[in-house]
Amino acid sequence: MGQGKGGEPTRLSCPRVFCPALPH
Predict the structure, then answer these.
(1) Is 21 in contact with 13 (CB distance < 8 Å)?
(2) What is the distance between the alpha carbons of residues 12 and 9, in angstroms, rounded to a whole number?
(3) Are 12 and 5 in contact (CB under 8 A)?
(4) Residue 12's pLDDT is what?
(5) What is the C-alpha separation between 4 and 18, in angstroms, rounded?
(6) What's the predicted TM-score (pTM) here?
(7) CB of 14 within 8 A of CB of 23?
(8) pLDDT tens-place string over residues 1-24
(9) What's the CA gap between 12 and 10, in Å, rounded?
(10) Dihedral of the CA atoms 20, 22, 24, 14 (nearest 10)?
(11) Which residues, 6+ apart, have CB-to-CB distance to 2 below 8 Å?
């Protein structure tokens, strides 16, 4: 939890597959 596409901020770019724990 804390990384999206290659390490981008999960708040902006982070699909459910990468961060299912975050609110989408």
Answers:
(1) no
(2) 6
(3) no
(4) 58
(5) 6
(6) 0.12
(7) no
(8) 555 555 555 555 556 665 666 554
(9) 5
(10) -70
(11) 10, 19
Provide DSSP, 1-24: ----SSS--TTTS--TTT-TTS--
User: Which tokens hold the place of 20?
Assistant: 């299912």
Which residue in the block uniquely carries the two structure tokens 């902006």? 12
Residue 7 tokens read as: 């390490």
Six-digit token string for 10: 């999960």
Question: Can you tell me which residue has the tokens 């724990």?
Answer: 21
